[in-house]
Write a structure and sequence with these properties.
Elements: E1 3-5, H1 7-14, H2 20-28, E2 34-36, H3 38-53, H4 59-75, E3 78-80, H5 85-103, H6 107-119, E4 123-125, H7 129-137, E5 141-143
Parallel strand pairs: 1-2, 1-4, 2-3, 4-5
Helix pairs in contact: 1-2, 1-3, 3-4, 5-6
Length: 144
């Protein structure tokens, strides 16, 4: 089954945090690659740089983590995909109008769910309860 992870799930695979062991355990039990969109590129790069700003890691560590991401793309663990941006934004706008008042979802959370929908029926991976709720409401299988 195709899998789409939100950025925090992916970042936890590279940058140690409270979810890292769970992410690594999950990934070791699946042979499916994770879809990797331009939105992931931006958010992961920014997350690493933000960790440098917050002094959680050094600039050299951020570079090493980014090299690991690039290596996973080359090996197929992360599968690069393009998005139909107009369709993605239309879905995101729809979800914001219909769901945010009840679920409390943020814009980037909505964009990730809409991206997953545009890419097809797949498993949506996230630890964010609001994002998981939205993914479930729109018919995506939620994990881990």
């Amino acid at each position: 089954m195709r899998q789409y992870a939100d950025t925090s799930f992916l970042v936890s695979a590279y940058l140690p945090d409270i979810h890292s062991s769970r992410v690594k355990q999950y990934l070791s039990g699946t042979s499916d690659s994770l879809l990797f969109s331009p939105l992931h590129f931006l958010e992961i790069r920014n997350a690493f740089q933000l960790a440098v700003f917050r002094k959680r890691i050094t600039a050299q560590q951020a570079l090493a983590f980014w090299k690991n991401v690039r290596s996973d793309i080359r090996s197929g663990g992360l599968e690069r995909v393009d998005l139909d941006w107009p369709r993605t934004y239309r879905l995101a706008f729809w979800h914001a109008r219909r769901q945010t008042a009840t679920l409390g979802t943020r814009s980037f959370d909505i964009l990730h769910v809409a991206s997953a929908q545009v890419l097809g029926r797949l498993k949506f991976l996230s630890f964010d309860s609001r994002q998981r709720s939205l993914a479930s409401v729109v018919g995506l299988q939620v994990g881990p």
